[in-house]
Amino acid sequence: MTQSLPPCPECSSTYAYQVDALLVCPECGHEWSRDAGPQPADEVRDSVGNVLKDGDTVTVIKDLKVKGSSSVVKVGTKVRGIRLVEGDHDIDCRIPGIGQMGLKSQFVKKVSE
Q1: What 3-state class would DSSP assign to 79?
Q2: Which of 29, 31, 54 is nearest to 44 (CA)?
Q3: Is-contact 23 13, C-beta < 8 A?
Q4: CB atoms within 10 A of CB 57
Q5: What pLDDT digit, counting tens, does each position of 41-93 carry?
Q6: N or C terminus of the chain with fewer C-beta within 10 Å?
Q7: Which segments constitute the Protein YjdM C-terminal domain (predicted)?
């Protein structure tokens, strides 16, 4: 009888395996306990201190060079439907005219709706 293991909470890989009491992801190396539920994330705040959440709309407050490209994300660019992630670039989003990329929350301001 095979036992179904949950996907990795970090990268959603379905190739997790069990080592003693821990589950391990071979793709990203994340280790977690099966009993540990979702961990509360730290609050992510924009440049003026507003708390951000998934699905918010933000505007860019500074021209940002796109690494590895000659493109620039211009100040005032509106980004809809952000997704918060862990790491240095804590916002995952799709920039109009540029595509999928990560942003730092210190360079955006939440749009009040």
Answers
A1: strand
A2: 54
A3: no
A4: 15
A5: 568 899 998 999 999 999 999 999 998 889 999 999 999 999 999 888 999 99
A6: N
A7: 44-111
